[in-house]
Records
---
Amino acid sequence: IKEWQKSGLLSQDDAPCIYVYEQTYSWAGTSYTRRAMLCGVRATELGVDVIPHEHTFAGPKADRLKLTKYTNLQLSPIFGFYNDPQQQITKILETAAAEVPQATGAMDSVEQKLWRISDPQAIESIVKILDNEPAYIADGHHRYSTAAKYAKALREAGTIDEDHEANFVMFALVAGDDPGLLVLPTHRVVKKLTEEFSLDVLRDVLDMFEWTKYEGDKPDLSDADGFLKPYGDGAMALIGPDGADVWIIRLASREAMTDAAADECQAWRDLDVAILHTLVLNAVKPWCKTAKMR
């Protein structure tokens, strides 16, 4: 890092900026362009202004805290998304991206472009539009928690005030309806099930779901998203131990999640991965010979 700074490869802009960051990639034969803005989000308690979808663990957080203390830097952005139903932010980013990018490159077959927004009025507009909108974490829960803990410790020690840069966590924020924001299905494998287990017995337990038997040819799960799409939002495929028994399930009522996860916020309870872990995988546990699921 010191070498990068010394050579000028890594330098600080003269004024506060927000950056437009584009990535163009291919999936299942289709090209997608995802547009994010790199910006700072004030570190607050998870579940209020910043919404998580998974729990964190002490070990990874301790490791990241050591790295933060050693470097005094946030080395990679949190990947998150936000709601922009009127596409106000989208239009601001589109205007910036119409210019020649400040930086371009490619990594792992992903084309990347970067633009700088330094106009104070444009930045203030973005801040006002998102003032009451939560940010949802897609990836980076441990890094976010670490950054928030680090900032809190500095404030309590009197090292920084409430407006210091350390109070803000670097995010790559993407609009929730961005056509390039491709979220692929979550896969989980449960090993060492008892002989008594079957999807039929699980069906009796998971009566809060609508169950549809799949009767077609062996499904092509290399494109699980394409396989599930005809069944609607929130559809999940359950495949039995022999691979031949396939059911599609959808949660019939969100009240089941309210009862099962009363301490979580509604945004978390609405996430498919939260439904999968809270209702489905917890229901499977009585038939597991091991606690490991992957």
Note: The chain has ten helices and eleven strands.
---
Amino acid sequence: SIKTSGSQTFGDAVTLGANATLESSAGTLTFSSTLAAGGKDLTLSADEIDFAGTVSGGGALTLQPATDATSIGIAGAAGTLELTAVELGKLADGFSSITIGRATGTGTTTVNAVSFSDPVTIRQPGVAGKVQLDGAITGTGNALVTLSAGSGGVALNAGVDTSAANGNIILTGDVTLGAATVTLAAGSGDVTFNNKVDGDKNLVVNTSGNTIFSAAVGGTTPLTSVTTDALGTTKINGGSIKTSGSQTFGDAVTLGAATTLTSTGGNLTFNSTVVGAFNLTLDTAGTANFNGVVGS
């Protein structure tokens, strides 16, 4: 490890021979040539990190600011630690994981449209920590996407698409929908909401894997609608989904708790089976449609 109060500037190519942490508490980490981590884990900690050459490796890469409360901007978004689209484009495919943010981060990370080809975690999980998605995240290669926030929550003003990678999408922290329609597409991967989901917008989930609602959906602010595609399984473990419009479950539904589905102005439609040893209550101003077997 190398720890300094000021900047660290590497004018020549850098190669790791062991796991390494490079940390600047009040300066910049500058790599003027290539950075080759090999199979080693690498943590870079500073409020400015600059890459001029390719960054490659097969271990875990962590990019984080010097302190927990520092904001992060990804792909052109505003933040004290700015990781531009050009700099992120220097990251070669092959890392076992890419983590952006501190394990105890309490600031805000704002994300513009960006693509990753390795598993990525964007985190601000400490008290008041927030992750705000203002542009779509696309996953290719073997990418999966994890967004992890503290009490500031996860603001989805855009969607996530890992369908090319069949990668999981994991959202930890209360989710607020901000775009008119937020679409999460995971191919054969799972889409998991670990906390509640709110926002008067449309939610669309497309996956042949599992769509997992672990907490109430629309409990504070009802969603406009919820739609899942015809493949996979929707697991309703949080007990309730409330919308102002329709709820359409194209795939099989499994209840993990006593569940109430409420639509104040639309239909409730189940296009496949509904199973689970729990009570199901439907409250709708429209029509409840069962197009598959219930309770088989």
Note: The radius of gyration is 21 Å.
---
Amino acid sequence: YPAGRTGMVISVTNFSDPSLSCHVALKHVLFGECESSGFCRKGLLFSVIACNMGRLRRTCGASLTQTRCGMQRSHHFHGQMSDTFRAAVFVTLSGGFQDAYTYISRGQVFANAQTGNIVLLSAALLRGDWAVCLKYLIPILSFVLGTMAAEFIHIRFRNFRQLYWRQLVLLQEIVFLCAVGFLPHTLDPLANALVSFVCAMQVHTFHKIHGHVYASTMCIGNLRCAAEALGEYLHGHNRASLDAAKTYFGVILVFAAGAGLGSLVTEFTDIRAIWVCCGLLLVSFILMFIRDDREA
């Protein structure tokens, strides 16, 4: 493949089935290796045309070799700083910790698992318990606002030179969680709202490890993907599927470890336990300065 520029927009066409055509953003074309981020089927050969400033600039062929949970990868992984497992470990530890913290110390509210909050909200709504309804409605609305805020930062600062835009999200998370540690129990609704806001930013911002889509603040999607990958490996003995299953099960174990740590620390330090998450996110922030160009 010819060398190209990062950030080009490419059009991918499957000539055997034009309905599968899609537009993707070219992330890496360098020394014959290219990686894109679109939604395509596994194992199809595509003709890739890259356009810049409205003019035809590059043509090459790309064989997409793997699709997992809606994402596909090329033969080689050229990792973004946030895609490394080491950075994801501390983000995921923080996600598990936050869920345990709000449930134990902040009135049995789930910061991450909005499904649980919606179930409890619905039950309170049918009972006519409006105070409980408000208790669970606040983190749900905060989660929505947090997702919107993370996307705004992505759009506004994705070309920011000084820091990676995901690092800006981490800094904002650290500030909010630090503030939560100062809020007394009389302000538990505000504390839960801030933690849910942070969780939404985190799950929206950090969602890939070496090309595998994952969630750093909840387990159901990771468990489904792990089971799917393990089933594929048992059926076809595909090494890539086994690696994917290991990645997902590893994330689940890290999340569980974070939840366990959060439970222990919160029992002893109560509302100030959340400051542990600030330290975990700070480590991830620092690690993101290190680029990972290893193969998956």
Note: The mean pLDDT is 75.
---
Amino acid sequence: AAVEDLGQVAHGDQARKVRDLRYRDHVFRGVAELHGRADRAASGDPGCGRGPAGISRKAQAGLERQMKAIGERTVRIGGASGFWGDSSLGPRQLVEVAGMQYISFDYLAELTMSILASAKAKKPELGYATDFVEVVREILPACFKRGITLVCNAGGMNPNACGAAVRNIAAELGLNVRIAVIDGDDIMSHFSALRERGTRDFYTGRPMPESFGSANAYLGALPITRALAQGANVVITGRVVDSAMVLGVLIHEFGWSMDDWDRLAAGSLAGHIIECGCQATGGLYTDWDQIPNW
């Protein structure tokens, strides 16, 4: 939507005028803002009782009180990659953020796993996201110096090969880095037994096919938590739940128990947002065709 002279912010279904020109560039349609500034100037809209993301002022104050009660300690996690082929600028920028503690990289989707399985079939030492290895060479010295831990699912279909590649780079750079590789998600070896038991397709009820290109089970956050507890500087996984890369960090840092459902849910939500990378701030914007110079 074009920004008029006074500017406007679409909030909910209807756009409302913004009298403060500082906010004229904040144009969204049908979604809540994700940044911390108010979505309109209070002086220009005295009747506005809502703050960022449409939360009422009263509710926002309540949330702030709860956060203070929990404590001031925070964990700073950067999301450097939302998919295989994402921009390499993210990792470089996040390393320079003051106080950064962890950087997570999400590379995998079902289609990606199929592509990696095909690559591994042609060349057994492949099958992982080579993008990660390339960026590690660039950022690992700074991460090691500043105590930033890297957590990724770049292992794809071959996490051990990915770990070996990162280990070689660390040796070339003269860095004594502890690298944790998490595997066990590849379940191809179980299919003969499953077929003998008469296992069928969950949705269609059809018998299992005679052959598979790949088959992986989603691992969760606990293996990542355990790797961090053992002092890993780099954690490389195969197929894990996307949000687990963040949730595993939070369980490690805050010592959450596995029956603390509310905190685990909050950590999972944070993980889902962070693992999407910049997609969480409009990368999947539906009105992309209206952005000048797109």
Note: The radius of gyration is 23 Å.
